[in-house]
Each structure stands twice: as C-alpha cells, then as structure tokens.
Amino acid sequence: MSICTIFRDEERFLPEFLDVFQGFGDELILVDTGSQDSSLQILQERGQVWHSFQWINDFSAARNYSLSLARGKWIFVADVDDRITKEFARDFKTYLRNTEALVLSLNYCSTNNLDWNGPNQIIKAIQPRVMAFRNGLKIEYRNPVHETPIPSIEEANAAIEQCPFSVFHIGYAHELQAHKNERNRKMIMDSFNSGDRSPRTLLNYVLASWKSEHSAYGLLIEAFEGADESLTRRLVETIYVWLLDFGATLRDDFDLDHEISKWEDKLRLLYPDALILELREARDNFGKNEPQKALQSYRRIYDGIAAESTLLRYRSEIFYRMGFLYAVLGDFGSALTFLMEHRHEFGKTAKVFHQILKILVIQGRITEALEEFKDLPADLGTLPLEKAEELKKIAMALNVPDQGFFKELLEHE
Questions:
Q1: How many other C-beta atoms can be found within 10 angstroms of the C-beta atom of residue 251?
Q2: Whole-prediction pTM
C-alpha cells in the first residue's frame, strides 16, 4: 500500500503525522508544493524522502502527481492533518487482505479541537470519504479546490464500498478554521474570476460568499443545469437552503413558497431523510411561538449535525435557539448547556450573554451572574432596547459597578 500525501508549510502537523502513519503503508509518498517553513528540515531529520511539485493553484494536479508515483497495489490518500489510531493501522490492513472491493470509503471525522484521540475529543462532522483504491484503475482527482476522485471512479465503473473505519481530521479544528477558510475562499474566488463556469466552481463560489444577491441564485440554477450526477444532490440541497436563507430578498413577483416546495420535493426524492428538511419546520414553529414543536425539530437537527455537513453553517442558530427554547420550557440546566456550547464555539456574544444572565438570576446563582459582568461581550451595543433595559435592571439589582455603561448603552439605542 502506498500512502500519498501533498503538503506545504506543515511544520505544525508533520511530526505527529509521521508518528501515526510511519509503517502503516509499504511506502510513504510525500509531495511538497513549495514549503517555506521548517517542514523539509523535519523530513530531512527523520530521514524521510519527499518529492517536489510546482504549485499551480490546483490541489487536484498536486494530488494526481502523488498518485503517479505510487507503486503499491493499493493507494491510500491522506492529508498531513489526518490522524489514525494504532488499532486502525492494524485492522485496516487486515481488511484490505480480505476485501474484493476496488474503492473504499471511510468515516472522515472532522474534530473541533486538536485533541483528536483524547478525553477532550469533540467531533464536529462525520462524512463518508473515498480514501483508498486499487492502483491501476486510472482514478484521478478533479477540481482545483475541494478536489474529488468521484467522477473518475464513476467513469471506471468501480463500486465504492463503505468500510467501518474512521480517520480523524484536525485541520478544521476551531483554532485553525479561519486561516484555512480564507485560503480556500481566495482560491475559489480566483478560479471564478478567471472565468471558470464549471458547475462545481459556481457552487463553491456561492458557498464561499453566501449572500442574498439575486445573481447567486442564478449561478446555482446554472450549476444545477450543467451538473453531473455526483454533484446533483449537493446542488439541490444548497439551492433549497439558499432559498430558506435569502429567498425573501428576491423580486416581489417571485413565488417563494412554490419555489421552496419545488426544491424541497426534489431533495426528498434524492435524500428523503435529509435533516436539513427539518430546518424549515423548526423555523416555522419558532416563529409561531410553538416552543415544544420547534425544540423537537431543532433537537433532531442537533443530534444529526455531525453527519450532515450542510447543517454546520447553522450551528449558531441551532445552539442559541435550543438554549432559548429549553429556557422557555423551564429546563434551565439544558438551556445553559446549549448556550455555553454556543459560547464555546462562537465566543461571548450579547444575545447569549443576555440569556445566560437571566437564567442565572432566575436560579439564584448570583455569584456566577456577577462573574458574567466582569467580561462584557464586545457586541453589547447591538442588543435591542428591550433586552438592554433588562440588562440594566439586572445590573442595578445586583449592584454591579459601572452603571454608567448601561446608561450609555440605552441612550445610544
């Protein structure tokens, strides 16, 4: 088995990657695309051979070069920020010896922190991902960003077998997310601005910008009309959620309810159990002031969020509204759990600060409420007047210093 990996400036991840993957395969093919940090020095000190590939803003080109160097009967494609356990290394090789499959998909677990195999592990998302296939099938990666081998696998008529193994990906841990997102966003924008109108580029462009411009909807429709089967479901799902988020901004004569229902029907045909379909019901019940029904929908979404990547962009809404709804229903312990989860993920925000304070005061946890006032959220001035007034009353009741701050807040509002 050949382990094929591309990298650039990965001094932070390389040592542990080498530790966990060394000896897993029969050869480790590392392709550098232009590192400027100490990555190559680390490899040299480890006695690890590497290859060089000139970076041309195309992840697929680099991946395919690494595949061309593979001599093993099997190819396993890994990133430097992927991690496997010792048990995985042992059991997966046994699985390979016994399977008749041509292509293997594994559970790809994105972690929310760097503690991928410890007691503080938090899994953010789990997706099936093709990571291993037999050499000689002419499988290649396509697309400059978000590269995928799926189209070439379909062209080779090679069935994909899902196997019961998990690989952990730490590259999208919370503390690294912003940098990686910006890198990918720049590549997507450059590709679109250079005139690339392929369905995947159009989809990635809309996802990277995610705004209410009417042109975005047009781009999604254009992408859908030109998409192959491998991209259809993702596009239908994206069009559906774009309409949920931004459909109200389209022209006045646009029949939004009809259009949402049309794409919802398409999505149900392709993926009848899609949890994203719950989002519309959850929002409708929340708006109708039916907390029990809204909470049930949001709970189902929350329980499945790790397995459905489209839901990840709604984590803020899900955490906050579940906290709010539990509080409305009198379950303050669960309410605080979800509000604190929101804070852990998104930092200290005014709306969550407001809800947590109210719950702490209701529960008589005055010491904790006073602690909250010691670190005020930066966006406190965005609170509506009614909520700002509530904060002022709480602060006055608890004899919180610096009452002038709340006076200025109310005058500003």
A1: 6
A2: 0.64
